[in-house]
């Protein structure tokens, strides 16, 4: 694979409008849902679990730098988890926080363990939530590859439209949160098994 091709797989364009990623209707209902994703997953499973994969310092991804106010990829605090419904991984979640942010900005981040970050964010009155952004991640994107590694196998491939030459893609959304002077970027990659869950109706009052 050429260097340019490899770089194109590792980066992605994020859009402020859900329609720009042309997600299938069942996935679009999950991607565009307002409120807490954790609450929606709990409502659609008998047993919900946050499986922490890693938390510590890491190099920020190139397509995250501008979103959290960095001039170039540098070390950040990173948290990655799988959200499981009835034992099945349905979402891979990736969070980054600049190292310059203090414990006062995000007092609970370091000790979350396998608790839900989403629940913490939505119930903290000091947290300001930015608009959602959406993207299509090809299988070569770092977050798709990390999700695959976490599952111990390759991610199941999503079919392309008939007669299409496009590569399989995974749909993701991200949101920037602010608290005091700190910023925190959460990216959620929706895995194919999420389509086995019945999406809840869109309700902007769900928290």
Reported by name, the CATH topology is Chorismate lyase
- The succession of helices and strands, N to C, reads HHHEEEHEEHEE
Total individual domains: 1
CATH evolutionary superfamily: Chorismate lyase-like
User: Overall pLDDT, averaged?
Assistant: 84
What is the highest CATH level, the class?
Answer: Alpha Beta
- State the major sheet: 7 strands, antiparallel
CA-based shape: globular
User: What is the number of helices?
Assistant: 5
Helical content stands at 10-25%
The class by helix and strand makeup works out as alpha+beta
What is the distance, rounded to the nearest whole angstrom, between the alpha carbons of the first and last residues? 44 Å
CATH architecture: 3-Layer(aba) Sandwich
Total strand segments: 7
- The unreliable regions are 1-9, 200-207
Short characterization:
The protein is α+β, with helices and mostly antiparallel strands and 207 residues long. Helices cover 18% and strands 30% of the residues. Strands 1, 2, 3, 4, 5, 6 and 7 form a 7-stranded antiparallel β-sheet that branches.
């Amino acid at each position: 694979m050429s260097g340019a091709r490899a770089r194109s797989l590792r980066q992605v364009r994020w859009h402020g409008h859900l329609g720009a990623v042309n997600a299938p209707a069942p996935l679009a209902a999950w991607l565009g849902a307002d409120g807490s994703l954790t609450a929606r997953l709990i409502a659609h499973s008998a047993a919900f679990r946050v499986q922490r994969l890693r938390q510590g310092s890491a190099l920020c991804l190139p397509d995250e730098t501008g979103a959290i106010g960095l001039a170039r990829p540098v070390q950040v605090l990173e948290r990655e988890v799988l959200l499981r419904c009835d034992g099945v991984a349905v979402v891979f979640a990736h969070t980054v926080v600049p190292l310059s942010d203090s414990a006062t900005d995000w007092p609970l981040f370091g000790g979350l363990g396998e608790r839900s970050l989403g629940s913490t964010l939505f119930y903290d009155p000091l947290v300001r939530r930015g608009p959602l952004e959406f993207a299509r991640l090809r299988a070569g994107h770092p977050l798709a590859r990390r999700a695959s590694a976490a599952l111990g196998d390759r991610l199941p491939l999503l079919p392309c439209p008939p007669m299409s030459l496009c590569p399989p893609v995974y749909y993701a959304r991200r949101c920037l949160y602010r608290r005091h002077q700190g910023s925190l970027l959460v990216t959620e990659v929706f895995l194919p098994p999420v389509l086995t869950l019945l999406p809840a109706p869109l309700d902007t009052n769900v928290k």
